[in-house]
Design brief:
409 residues, Killer Toxin P4, Chain A
C-alpha cells in the first residue's frame, strides 16, 4: 500500500495544479487501492497551487509511515487528502478546522452582520451551481464595513451536498466566533471564509446581483441608491449606481448627475461611462475605482491590526491635493461653474494608486449665466457636519461652501 500511496501523491503533485487546481486519482486494485485528491483555493494562480501541492506532498512523505490508512493536510491555500476507500463525492463534515477574524467595533457590527448574511446566502445559492464550485463575493461594498466572502466545495460533490456543507460551515463559524468580525471553517468537503477586508485575489461577484447582472427578486434597494460592480465584455471593470425609482429626489439626482458629470472631465473627477433609462429603471455606469472611498480607507486603517497603515502622510497629502485640484476645476476652470455641495470622505473615491476622484454629483448646483453673483440663495442640501454655517443656516451658497467642506475633510 505504501507504493500506491507514493504513486497517488506524485500524481497529485504533478498533475493537480495542471488540472485547474483540482485533481482526484487512485492507484492499486481491490483492497490495496489508495484514493486521493488535491484542491487549491479557486482564486490562487497555477504557480501558487504548484508550490502548495509540493509542500503538502513533502509533509506527507515525511509522515507516511505513521498514516498509511488515510490522511489530510491543509498547508495554506490547498487541501490534500488520501484514504484507503473512495470518498471524493461523499459529504464529509466530521473534520473541522477554523478560526475567527478580528472583531468589528460595536458601532459597525450590525451593518457588518447584515452584509455577512447577504454574502453567505449568496454563496450558498451560487457555489453549488458552479462547475468549479468556487465563488468569491462581496456584500455592502458601498458601506463602511462590507463583507468579503469565499465559498468552495469539492467539485465531485453534488449540489445538494455542497449547499449542506456550506450551511454547516456557516453554523460552525457562528457558534465559534459568536457573530464577531467573520471567520473561516475548513471541512473536508468545503471551505467557507468571510471577513470585512478583501483577502482573496481577483474581482469578487457582487452579492446583491445575480450572475446575469439583474437584481434578484428579494434584493432590497436602499432608499437612495444601490451600488454594484460588473465587467464589460472587453474586461473593463465598472461600477453601477441604481437610483430609487420610488423617489422624486432620485429622479432629479439622476438627471442632475448626468448633466453635471457628463459635461466635465478631469483626472480628479470620477468618469461617467454611460447611463440607462428604460421604463422606471435609472442606472449610471462609472469607472471602477479599486480602493473604494476615502471614508473606507480611513476606517480600514483605524481598525486594522497592521503596523503600517495604507494611508501614510504622503498618501493623505496627495489625496487632499487631488481633491483640491478637482474642486478648483469645478469652481474656476470648467465651462460651467459647479458647486458640489456634498464634499465628504465617502464622496472622494480612490483609484489603484490612491489618486482622489470626486464623485456623487447628484446634489451639485450649476451656476447659470444669469447667476453671475458670488452668492445665491437656495434650498439647503448636503450632509450636516460638512456644511458651511452661512449655507446651513441661511441657504447662502457659493464655492466657499465646498472649500469649507474640504477643510472639514
Amino acid at each position: 500500500m505504501g507504493r500506491n500511496l507514493l504513486t497517488v501523491l506524485a500524481t497529485l503533485q504533478d498533475q493537480g495544479p495542471a488540472a485547474g487546481g483540482y485533481k482526484s486519482t487512485s492507484s492499486g486494485s481491490m483492497s490495496d487501492t489508495v484514493y486521493g485528491f488535491i484542491q487549491c483555493r479557486g482564486d490562487i494562480s497555477a504557480q501558487e497551487c504548484s508550490s502548495c501541492a509540493r509542500l503538502a506532498v513533502q509533509i506527507l512523505n515525511s509522515t507516511v509511515r505513521n498514516s498509511t490508512k488515510g490522511g489530510r493536510i491543509h498547508p495554506g491555500n490547498c487541501f490534500l487528502r488520501y484514504e484507503d476507500h473512495f470518498f471524493s463525492s461523499i459529504l464529509d463534515k466530521d473534520t473541522n478546522q477554523g478560526n475567527c477574524s478580528t472583531s468589528i467595533p460595536s458601532s459597525s457590527l450590525a451593518i457588518f452582520q447584515s452584509n455577512s448574511r447577504t454574502a453567505l446566502e449568496f454563496l450558498k445559492a451560487k457555489v453549488p451551481r458552479k462547475a468549479r464550485k468556487f465563488v468569491a463575493a462581496v456584500a455592502g461594498i458601498g458601506s463602511a464595513v462590507p463583507a468579503y466572502a469565499l465559498g468552495q466545495c469539492i467539485p465531485d460533490l453534488s449540489a445538494a451536498d455542497c449547499a449542506s456543507c456550506l450551511a454547516a460551515a456557516e453554523n460552525a463559524i457562528a457558534s465559534t466566533c459568536r457573530g464577531g468580525g467573520g471567520g473561516v471553517c475548513y471541512y473536508s468537503s468545503c471551505t467557507l471564509f468571510f471577513q470585512r477586508s478583501k483577502f482573496f485575489q481577483g474581482i469578487p461577484e457582487n452579492a446583491t446581483v445575480l450572475g446575469n447582472g439583474t437584481l434578484p427578486s428579494n434584493s432590497k434597494v436602499m432608499d437612495h441608491v444601490m451600488l454594484s460592480f460588473g465587467t464589460f465584455s472587453d474586461g473593463t471593470e465598472i461600477a453601477i449606481k441604481k437610483l430609487s425609482v420610488a423617489s422624486k429626489q432620485g429622479e432629479q439626482q439622476f438627471l442632475n448627475e448626468v448633466k453635471v458629470i457628463g459635461s466635465v472631465q478631469h483626472r480628479n473627477l470620477v468618469r461617467l461611462l454611460g447611463c440607462c433609462v428604460e421604463g422606471s429603471e435609472r442606472l449610471l455606469v462609472y469607472e471602477f475605482l479599486k480602493n473604494n472611498s476615502l471614508e473606507k480607507a480611513l476606517l480600514d486603517d483605524l481598525i486594522s491590526a497592521e503596523e503600517t497603515p495604507r494611508l501614510g502622510w504622503n498618501t493623505r497629502y496627495n489625496i487632499l491635493l487631488g481633491t483640491a485640484r478637482g474642486l478648483t476645476y469645478l469652481h474656476e476652470d470648467s465651462q460651467i461653474r459647479i458647486v458640489h455641495r456634498d464634499i465628504k470622505p465617502s464622496n472622494i473615491l480612490l483609484d489603484e494608486t490612491f489618486e482622489a476622484k470626486i464623485s456623487d454629483f447628484g446634489l451639485a448646483r450649476l451656476y447659470g449665466e444669469d447667476e453671475a453673483t458670488e452668492i445665491i440663495t437656495t434650498k439647503v442640501a448636503g450632509t450636516y457636519g460638512y456644511m458651511a454655517p452661512e449655507y446651513a443656516f441661511h441657504g447662502h451658497l457659493s464655492e466657499k461652501a465646498d472649500v469649507f467642506s474640504f477643510g472639514v475633510v
